[in-house]
Write a structure and sequence with these properties.
Helix content of chain A: 25-40%
Largest sheet of chain A: 6 strands, mixed
Radius of gyration of chain A: 23 Å
Number of helices of chain A: 13
CATH topology of the largest domain in chain A: Aminopeptidase
Structural class of chain A: alpha+beta
Number of strands of chain A: 18
CATH class of the largest domain in chain A: Alpha Beta
Oligomer: homodimer
Largest interface: A-B, 101 and 99 residues
Distance between the termini of chain A: 18 Å
CATH superfamily of the largest domain in chain A: Zn peptidases
Number of domains of chain A: 2
Chain lengths: 456, 456
């Protein structure tokens, strides 16, 4: 492995330059004006995979953005790793809060600043470079397949069908994903659980046009007032979701599990200071780690309606909108929860308004057993680079497709993530420390060695 | 008067053309990029007043947009009428809902379509033309002063001080205002009461930046969820404002007054059909006429926060905002209510967020006695043109400055308004029927004749 690690260290500047080239393409999957950028990014990944040493790479159509598929099959009798990553990124607004343009990557204070620096171009690209280092030094011990999609940030809407249609091509022993975080730069961890997600847009219509708030105010239902009441009524004073059935399928953690979970390093004062809040808030009876790890959430992601410009416009608006999401936990079913909310929220509306609820996005929660050979291999790989055994953690985030892989392909995933909480993914000034980028490439290279050994 | 009415009818096309010239200047007072347009509009009014026959017209500075003042003093011993109007208009968004550009007036189906067609360029300009018709035919029976301001739609913020500083110049026996509505094109009415107004902007700050709703969701207070709870908690299930003291000063109408008020022509089914709602809604125990006439309201005029673009962005936003207004009734004091809300709403916020409340706008409610000589003159004027005695009504709208006139100048106002509910003031496709424009000019001309007689 000495040659492999040496190769990674010698080529690090080139790796960074290549990553920057991919980051510069603004592949925002949720905005239709970036349709061409999705194709450009897929082509850039295909070229990068061929350069890294795959035998075959192609851009495969789906009903949405294409999937980049590649493979290097060295021996049909050896184990196979399927690497999953995504080439799409989140929107960048509010763009005026960025200190440098989101699609012009720069290094400041040892960190890459750009949209996608971490999620998931930075982390995904580490997979390509670890693979390249093994191939170029004749040390690849297993078959490798790559599946890089362009719709992760919009719920991987086409990937389930793609997996269904290509089960044989995608057959593998383990799926390897770098799209999660670690506790701190010097405290490696492996995410063993992910929350699921349901995401809705709601539209409340009162009168058929904006009305004068003086002439009509008090006599006609105001859609914003109504929406506020409907949202407010979804949770009680203990921050529990009151929709009947919402918690029915939640897999309650045992006292022992909760105790272990709360032993992870966590400083509440530091946490509050980092986001500048005087108090945290959440479901009564649970710690912050539990609230964001093993309990479902109910969050407003956006709201709008009426006059939002400068000054005072007196208007009784016609419409109000909100984007609402719920992070789900094992064993809540996202489709069941989505339908439950659609019905419940629609029925909440008084007759004085019309309501429309659309499900935009969803995914199941996921759990990875820590006795999997691949988990053990990942553990050893982290030990090699960081000198510490990684902590198994539950993430509050969602990678909806991970559960789909299990359902459709019957394959577990190992989440070797190198992001930090301070990376500000999905926010202005997303960043990724160079140390994490380079250490991540080395850790992944070690994973292959130990995975091949575990599978023997 | 035959010559006066003849003159109005002969010159109607020119009157319309002149009005269009004034409408074309986009004098939106709440948007700072229209600063120059405010001056241009003031200059256009000054020129129009001089052309109509005043002795003197000038543009007088205030701390905000200037006031256009003009006068024709024919005899110091005669009564004086002070005409009040405003040359500013509301914003035009959402601009894509307009069928024709808001500042390019057109006549379709007998109606003028444009921002300001009614409120208040159309109605204000009728005052100039009625005055012109009297002057040009040697029939002006009283002294006339004009005060046309540029900040009515933002709460007449500078006009109180302007009145204080110019009490002698503005001395009059009655203030005449065309900025309200009538029941229907063939049912004239005179507004004898106006609601007051308080208007706030609120800002809720949770975390110091937008957070990943997966990693943080459920563990950190979401400012939109919090804002929705705060708004929802302001009113109870009977749509009564729960803020202690809010109703304390409300002048309760007697059963007899309420009975009379509810005798005004009103068809609930037509009302609902016109705005396309299945049910009206409002304070329990009151009719629609009462809710919008003699009871205060609590309306959200706007709300925004988080991601409002296309698709599903999962984010726990840093901030949420709302614009909130309350229409007030006699004898609620808008300053007292504004302060009451600022304190109450601030204290509603949990410690997990920061809250900022700003009062943007306000005005007192107003009542006009129906035994005033000017009211009687207005009644006779309507009878001349419409053949019917006008109905005294209470408007839900606010002209905050009307109460200020009473306080500062000690003068009552008569509200001779010609707008219709279908004029869509403050909304897309604001319009004003040509019939109302021309009949209004004639009615105002008759007012002068009867007012002089009443005051003899």
């Amino acid at each position: 492995m000495q040659n492999v690690i040496g190769y990674i260290r010698e080529n690090k500047d080139r790796f960074l330059e290549e990553l920057f080239g991919i980051i510069r393409i603004p592949s925002i999957s949720s905005q239709s004006e970036h349709k061409d950028d999705m194709i450009k990014t897929a082509e850039a990944y295909k070229a990068a995979l061929l350069a890294a040493g795959v035998d075959r790479a192609e851009i495969m159509p789906t009903t949405g953005n294409p999937v980049v598929y590649a493979e290097k099959i060295i021996d049909g009798s050896l184990p196979t790793v399927l690497v999953y990553a995504h080439y799409d990124v989140m929107p960048v607004d509010p763009v005026d809060l960025w200190d440098s343009p989101p699609f012009e990557p720069v290094v400041r204070d040892g960190k890459i600043y750009a949209r996608g620096a971490d999620d998931d171009k930075g982390q995904g690209f580490m997979q390509l470079k670890a693979f390249e280092a093994l191939v170029r030094n004749g040390k690849l011990p297993v078959n490798v397949k790559f599946m890089i999609e362009g719709e992760e940030e919009i719920g991987s809407v086409s990937l389930g069908a793609f997996c269904e249609a290509n089960k044989e091509m995608l057959r593998s022993d383990i799926i390897l994903v770098s799209d999660t975080g670690m506790i701190a730069e010097d405290i490696p961890s492996i995410t063993t659980g992910l929350r699921g997600l349901a995401y809705w847009q709601v539209e409340i219509t009162g009168p058929n046009r904006d009305l004068h708030s003086g002439l009509f105010g008090g006599g006609v239902a105001n859609p914003i007032n109504v929406l506020a009441k409907m949202i407010a009524s979804m949770t009680d004073e203990d921050n529990k979701v009151v929709m009947p059935g919402f918690y029915d399928d939640v897999l309650d953690a045992s006292d022992a599990e909760r105790k272990k979970l709360n032993q992870a390093p966590f400083d509440l004062d530091e946490y509050k200071a980092a986001i500048d809040v005087d108090e945290v808030d959440g479901e009564k009876g649970y710690t912050t780690i539990e609230r964001t790890g093993i309990r479902p959430s109910f969050d407003l992601c956006g709201i709008w309606g009426g006059y939002t410009g400068e000054g005072a416009k007196t208007v009784l608006p016609s419409k109000a909108f909100a984007k609402i999401s719920s992070r789900l936990v094992p064993n809540q079913d996202n489709v069941k929860i989505a339908g439950m909310f659609e019905e419940y929220f629609t029925n909440l509306a008084p007759k004085s308004v019309k309501v429309k609820v659309s499900s935009l996005h969803g995914g199941q929660a996921y759990v990875c057993p820590i006795d999997l050979p691949a988990y053990k291999a990942a553990e050893k790989a982290f030990e090699e680079v960081y000198g510490k055994t990684p902590v198994p953690t539950r993430s509050g985030g969602s990678i909806p497709i991970i559960s789909t892989f299990e359902e459709v392909l019957g394959t577990k995933s190992v989440l070797m993530g190198f992001g930090l909480e301070s990376d500000a993914i999905h926010s202005p000034n997303e960043n990724f420390p160079l140390n994490n980028f380079y250490n991540g490439i080395e850790t992944i290279a070690w994973f292959y060695k130990y995975f091949a050994e575990e599978m023997k």
